[in-house]
Write a structure and sequence with these properties.
- This protein is of the alpha+beta class and 278 residues long.
- The protein has two domains: 121 residues, Ubiquitin-like (UB roll); 151 residues, Alpha-Beta Plaits (2-Layer Sandwich), CATH 3.30.70.
- It has seven helices and 13 strands.
- β1 and β2 form a beta hairpin.
- α2 packs across α3.
- The protein is globular.
- The termini are far apart.
Amino acid sequence: MGSSVSLKIDGRTVTVSEGTTLREACEKAEHSIPTLCWHENLTPANACRACVVELKGSRTLVASCSRAAEEGMEVMTDTERVQNARKVVAELLLSTSDASLAPDLRRLAEESGADAERFRGGSNWDQPVRVDNELYVRDLSKCILCYRCVEACGTDAQNTFAIQVAGRGFDAHIDAGFGRELPESDCVFCGNCVAVCPTGALIGKTEWDLRNEGKWDETRISTTRTICSYCGVGCELELNVLDNKIVKVTSPMDNPITQGMLCVKGRYGYEFVQSEEA
C-alpha cells in the first residue's frame, strides 16, 4: 500500500495518496477546479493555465493538473489572485478563438466574469476551415492550442506523431508538418484527436455538415453501446443516432480497453450499416 500525504486546501486538511495531483486533491476536498487542456486519459500539457491555484510559499501560481501534492502544503483555490488569473486566461483565449462549440471555455469565462472583447484582435478568427478529407474537418479559428490532439496522436494513445504545434505567438498553430494537408501527412485518420478536442476545432465531417445545414440537434440524439465488429480486440462503441441514422461513433472515456480511443475502422467505418445496397 502506497504512502499518503496530508495538506490543507482552503483551510481544510485533506489526505491523499502520494503522487496525487493538486487538482485531484482539490476535487476530493469538493473544490471544483476549471480545466481546458487537462484530459482524464492524457498527460497534462500545462498549456492553458485555467487550473492554477495559489500555493503558500510559492512565488507563482501553480498548475494543479500536474503539480503533485506534498506533505504540509497549503493550497488556496479561490483567492483574488487566482480569480484574476483565470479571468485573464479566458479573455486571452476568447480574443483569438471562436468559443461557440467550447462549453468549458464559455463556462470559465462566465464564472470568472471575463470580458470577451478586452483583447479582441488576434489572428485565429480569420483562419479558413480546412476540409481535405471525408472524415473530419479542421476549423482552426476554434483552436485554443490545448495540446490535447497532439498528446492523443503521440505516446498517450496513437503513437503516430502526425501533428505538432508550429510557429510562435499569434502564429502558433497545429500543423501536420511543412504546411501539408492531412492526406499528405502521417495521419491514419483514427479520429482520436477529434475525440479529445474541447472546442470543436476538430469535428467529424458528418456533424459539421449537419450543423451547417441546421439539422444537428443534440436533444434528439440517442446513444447505443455496442462492440466493434472489425477485429477481436473488443472495443466498445457508442453509436450516436439522429433521425435513425448513425451520425457519430465515440467510445467511453472510462472503458478499460479503449479509454475513449478507436482506430479508423471503429470510429468511421459505419457507413455500411446505412447502405441500401444488397
